[in-house]
Design a protein that fits this description.
Blueprint lengths: L2 H14 L9 H8 L3 H15 L4 E4 L2 E4 L1 H22 L5 E5 L1 H19 L5 E5 L5 H6 L5 E5 L10 E4 L4 E5 L18 E3 L6 H5 L9 E3 L3 H9 L4 E5 L9 E4 L7 E5 L9 H16 L22
Parallel strand pairs: 3-4, 3-5, 8-9, 8-10
Antiparallel strand pairs: 1-2, 5-12, 6-12, 7-10, 7-11
Helix pairs in contact: 1-4, 2-3, 5-9
Length: 309
């Protein structure tokens, strides 16, 4: 088998070993690649000899790529991209929908893998996440991959939900620090929310304030701006929250922030660049999912374990 054919075959095998469902045997891999199980096994064994490491392992009764195999697959994808793109010129843009706060935090961590693999051959376009049309946009080919908060109201459930260790935060202006101990929220307070982006259980944590005092801002950036202006309290995720222009209290009795992934239902419908982007997102949360880092509670507030007085 020529080197070009070996690379293409390894690429096909790697896709199967990272897809859903994972194969239970080499026979299944051989059938799905039309190469036969013996040829697939021998090809991988030759690559393993070359890199002096196991590329494929058996996990929970299923064959899958090892950690080294995942890195090897990225190299293979880079070779495939280089060959294809050099011959045909740049691909269609990679269209990603992302919630602004997630884009701000994720993109600096995801782009290096994209640039390393595809360089100038793939142009990535980031658009605001559209929860009402995300599935329609994917079906129409307008969006390759979408990333939003797991709480957002969409036309259909997410395909994947990545758990984070970051809590929802009640943020409040410095003026709240002059209140009697324990009086964090009062019925007269105004609370700013981005209701469509926030889980109902987090909203229910603000039950001390009647809904008539809630102001819908649409985005978390607008919520933070209103709180910074001293207009009232706000509810935001602890992602992209760096400035200490206000006090913060994590809602520890509410499930942490979840990140929702929307993609073609069949993973085979993902382009190679989109697959690389998705893998990089998963890697970010698997490797660099940091604990919550919030400001200390203002001393004039009581410790409430995430419950509001």
């Amino acid at each position: 088998m020529a080197l070009r054919e070996q690379i293409e075959a390894a690429h096909r095998i790697g896709k199967i070993l990272t897809g859903v469902p994972l194969p239970a045997s080499w026979l299944m891999i051989g059938r799905r690649t039309s190469l036969g199980d013996d040829k697939c096994r021998r090809l991988i064994e030759r690559w393993e000899e070359g890199v002096e490491a196991k590329l494929v392992e058996l996990r929970d009764g299923r064959l899958t790529l090892s950690a080294t195999g995942c890195r090897f697959q990225k190299l293979i994808e880079g070779l495939i991209a280089l060959k294809t793109q050099s011959a045909a010129g740049p691909q269609e843009p990679l269209n990603i929908e992302a919630a602004p706060e997630l884009a701000e935090w994720l993109l600096p961590r995801v782009f290096p893998a994209m640039f390393e693999t595809y360089g100038e051959y793939v142009r990535t376009q980031i658009r605001p996440f559209d929860p009402a049309r995300v599935r329609s946009n994917i079906r129409a080919g307008l969006t390759d991959l979408a990333i939003g908060f797991a709480s957002e109201e969409t036309e259909s459930p997410a395909d994947e939900v990545l758990e984070t260790s970051r809590h929802w935060l009640l943020i409040f202006p410095d003026s709240f620090g002059t209140r009697p101990e324990g009086a964090l929220l009062a019925a007269s307070d105004r609370v700013f929310v981005a209701r469509g982006n926030t889980p109902q259980i987090a909203l229910e944590a603000l039950s001390a304030v009647p809904e008539s005092a809630w102001t819908e801002c649409g985005t978390f950036a607008a919520v933070r701006a209103c709180v910074s202006a001293g207009l009232g309290a706000g509810l935001v995720p602890a992602i992209g929250v760096e400035a200490k222009e206000y006090g913060e209290m994590p809602l520890t009795n509410v499930a942490p922030v979840g990140v929702a992934i929307y993609r073609p239902r069949n993973l085979a419908g993902l382009s190679d660049p989109a697959r690389t982007f998705l893998t990089a997102i998963r890697d970010v949360f698997a490797v660099t999912n940091p604990p919550v880092t919030t400001g200390e509670m203002v001393s004039t507030h009581a410790e409430t374990n995430g419950e509001l007085a």
